[in-house]
Each structure stands twice: as C-alpha cells, then as structure tokens.
C-alpha cells in the first residue's frame, strides 16, 4: 500500500497529494504532525525509532510522529497513528506548528509543515516493533541536558520542536 502525504504551501494550504517516498525523494513540502505525550510528573514519553525506518532509524524522538491522511482531520489522523504506533490513545490538542527542511545521508529530504500536538497519559505503551525499538518517560530537565550533550541521538524535527516546547514552559 502506498502511503500518501498532503502537499502544502508555507501557510499550510493544501496543494494536493503525493506518494510519501516521492515527496521525501523530491523534498516537497508536506503536512506532518509530532505528538508529545506527558504524564502527571511532567515527564515526556519519547521513543527510539525502529532501526529499519526509511530515515532516522535508531534515533530518539517525540512520542509519535507521522503524516495526516487525505480526507482526515489532523487530530483524527493523530489519534489513529498514536494507537497504531504506541498502542494507546489519550486526549490531544494542537499546540503550535513550524516549518523545517533537512537532507539525510541517504539523499531523502524531510521538508515538512509540522503540527505539534500535546497530550497527557498515565501508563505504559505497547509499541509497534515495526515503528519503535524502545520508549521511556523522561523528565524535561534530564532530556534538555542530554539533548545538549548528545544532539545526534535525537531526530532533527524533535530537536527543533523541543526548543519551542521549552519556551512554553516559563522556566528560568
């Protein structure tokens, strides 16, 4: 089954659809989402991408990320993907969005209008092994320190989004 992405302009206006791999091969701007799920201890659930992923395999990233499907609302796609990838669901709310573009060693290009979605959840995940190697709950301050010392352990979009997430927490 070919997976589709929604091609957009820099204001997130839909321009049509394209096969996911073609969009990544050509560097076409498309819509994406990144889900950040927190628990009551203000720990973030992060996951390590499966080694076999088409890019960024083995890197740590936010709770769940994907592309909304044509004909679905953003949050509808986010809920479906969270269940499929991490094995649970929770209340979700869009927080902010950003544009980014990066080229990977294999020649693929991520060029995404990324919607950051926040949620709260208490409990364990049941990750899909085709998507996820491992996951853990991590306190924000510990994550911030590790991302500064070991930035290459984390996906590009997660590092960008975390800079914005940190600003949401009015911390000194």
Q: Can you describe this structure?
A:
This protein has 172 residues and is an alpha+beta fold. It has one domain (4-168): Nucleoside Triphosphate Pyrophosphohydrolase (Alpha-Beta Complex). It is built from four helices and nine strands. The chain has helices at 20-26, 74-86, 140-149, 156-168, and strands spanning 4-8, 14-19, 30-38, 43-49, 60-61, 64-66, 92-103, 109-120, 132-139. Strands 3, 4, 5, 6, 7, 8 and 9 form a seven-stranded mixed sheet that branches. A two-stranded antiparallel ribbon has the order 1-2. A hairpin with a 4-residue loop joins strand 3 (30-38) and strand 4. The chain is globular.
Helical residue percent?
25-40%
CATH level-1 class: Alpha Beta
Order of helices and strands: EEHEEEEHEEEHH
Question: Which word captures the global form?
Answer: globular
Q: Please mark out the parts with pLDDT under 50 across 5 or more consecutive residues, or reply none.
A: none
Distance from first to last alpha carbon: 48 Å
Judged by helices, strands and strand pairing, the structural class is alpha+beta
For the biggest sheet, the summary is:
7 strands, mixed
Architecture (CATH level 2) name: Alpha-Beta Complex
Q: Work out the count of structural domains.
A: 1
Cα-based radius of gyration, to the nearest Å: 15 Å
Provide a count of the helices: 4
How many beta-strand elements? 9
Within CATH, the superfamily carries the name Nucleoside Triphosphate Pyrophosphohydrolase
State mean pLDDT (0 to 100 scale). Answer: 92
Work out the strand percent.
35-45%
CATH topology: Nucleoside Triphosphate Pyrophosphohydrolase
